[in-house]
Amino acid sequence: MEKTLFDKYGGFSTVSKVVLTLYDRLLEDDDVGPFFDDVDLPRLIDHQTKFVSSLMGGPASFTDDHIERAHRGMQIEDHQFDRLKEIVAEVLTDFDVEDPDIAAILGEFEARRALLIETPNDN
Amino acid sequence: MTIEAINEQLLRAIGVGVALLDLDDLSFSFRNDTFNEWFGEPSSATRLNDIFPDLDTGTLRQEMNGSGRMSTEASFKLRRRTMTVALEFNLAQNAQDNIAVLVCQNITRIKELESMIDSYSMMVERNTHEIKREKEQVEKLLLNMMPRAAYEEYKTFGVVSPRLFEPVSVLALDFIEFDSQFTQHEAGVIVSELSDIYSAFDRIGAQFSCQRIRTHGDSYVAVSGVPDPNEDHAAAIANSGVRFLRYLERRNDSHPIKWKARIGVATGPVIGSVVGNQNYIYDVFGPTVAAALHHRDQAAKMTMATDQAFADLVAGRFDGAPSSDGSHVLIRDMAASA
């Protein structure tokens, strides 16, 4: 069986550091940070942990339906999605994740853009 | 620079929030830089509860008058981040005034890590649970395909060695005019009927330590003595066969589709093994299986045919009557032949 990125980069030991770094950068960022203004800490950390684990093929899996429901009504715009992608790429680069792997992760991420961004006709 | 001045500078610069609290009016007489960074620039009007609204000041005063110390935790927002600090109040020693030293340790990272570990362990627990459930399903499926002893051998060694079982008895059953049933009824109905009937056969067989080995369309093959030896294998198979026919008779009385079966039984050795390494099937082979199939072909509808060797093994418990042409023996239970 092919090794997941989660296993390749050291499992939870690495993922925990990626999660906390991502958490710091997202909160500091003025484009995406405001989405987390009113979210309490355990929920936010839970969200980030599952997000990073699922991106890297760890023990979390979400159906597209689940992702769509979790982001419904948040009015996320394309430039904010792009910024989130940039932040994810920066953090992964800092943790020495190889470029093809970052590209694969961002590709998965990009494939779900439509789930997060609501078009005016959705509501 | 005096020692006092150096001390004050150090106190201001450390990464721990330090403040002096006047216990009379709960105002602050000193706050270091870290404390101000977290809770804003000082104002003479700022009171303890302005910064920590959830803190019970009654309890604080009580503890200060008693043990002179109190520990608690408080959370606040610093920009978007939820910060958590461990607060420790200590009554100042040898002070003229009623003052407490408040030390705030930043334990935000610890709380964040705790949350993350909680989240992660829940994920892992859920996954472990799912894997366990899937494993049980796989085990259940494999146990449907092979006897438990063969499954245990497969699990331990990855293969199941062919094994000779002797003596055993084999039962082979099929249905008369099965093809015409298919033309008269929908395929789905026939499959559902077969599923119902085979399940009943499995239950009856299990009562007599017989195990279904395979089905192929209308062909049903069961064995007794594999993999666990059964001294009374022939009677077990005869009992099952008699009851299979009785079950069908009763079922036919109340169901629109009438099933007429014929059964062949034989005794002797068989080889049992898992066949294939991609598609695992546990099967039994040998002349005994061939003999059972041969006797099945000889049997008229709703009868059980065999040879003299099998009939001798169950003599006294089952009636064995030679067929009119002498080619086989028909097995019936004593009550039916009386």
Our Rg estimate of chain B from Cα atoms comes to: 42 Å
The helix fraction of chain A, in percent, is 55-70%
The outline of chain A comes out as globular
Which range does the strand content of chain B fall in?
A: 25-35%
Q: Helix count of chain A, per DSSP?
A: 7
Task: Name the chain pair with the biggest interface and residue counts per chain.
Answer: A-B, 23 and 19 residues
Order of helices and strands of chain A: HHHHHHH
Distance between the termini of chain B: 122 Å
Strand content range of chain A: under 5%
* Helicity of chain B, as a percent range: 40-55%
As residue ranges, the low-confidence spans of chain B are: none
Features:
heterodimer, A: 123 residues, mainly alpha, B: 338 residues, alpha+beta, 8-stranded mixed sheet, 5-stranded antiparallel sheet, rod-shaped
List the helices and strands and how they pair.
The complex is a heterodimer of chains A (123) and B (338).
Chain A lengths: L4 H4 L2 H18 L12 H15 L8 H7 L7 H17 L4 H12 L2 H4 L7
Chain B lengths: L2 H11 L3 E6 L4 E5 L1 H7 L8 H4 L5 H9 L3 E10 L2 E11 L7 E8 L1 H38 L2 H10 L5 E13 L2 H7 L2 H21 L3 E6 L2 E6 L8 H22 L6 E15 L5 E5 L1 H12 L5 E3 L1 H6 L4 E5 L6 E5 H4 L1
Parallel strand pairs in B: 9-11
Antiparallel strand pairs in B: 1-2, 1-5, 3-4, 4-5, 6-8, 6-9, 7-8, 9-10, 11-13, 12-13
Short description:
The complex is a heterodimer of chains A (123) and B (338). Chain A contains seven helices and no strands.
Structural account:
- The complex is a heterodimer of chains A (123) and B (338).
- Chain A has 123 residues and is mostly helical.
- Chain A has seven helices and no strands.
- In chain A, helix 2 (11-28) packs across helix 5 and helix 5 (78-94) runs antiparallel to helix 6.
- The N and C termini of chain A lie far apart (42 Å).
- The relative contact order of chain A is 0.16.
- Chain B is an alpha+beta fold and 338 residues long.
- Chain B has twelve helices and 13 strands.
- Chain B has helices at residues 3-13, 33-39, 48-51, 57-65, 108-145, 148-157, 178-184, 187-207, 233-254, 287-298, 308-313, 334-337, and strands spanning 17-22, 27-31, 69-78, 81-91, 99-106, 163-175, 211-216, 219-224, 261-275, 281-285, 304-306, 318-322, 329-333.
- In chain B, the strands form two sheets. In chain B, strands 6, 7, 8, 9, 10, 11, 12 and 13 form an eight-stranded mixed sheet that branches. Chain B has a five-stranded antiparallel sheet with strand order 2-1-5-4-3.
- In chain B, helix 8 runs antiparallel to helix 9.
- The model of chain B has no long low-confidence stretch (mean pLDDT 90).
- The interface between A and B is medium-sized, with 23 and 19 residues.
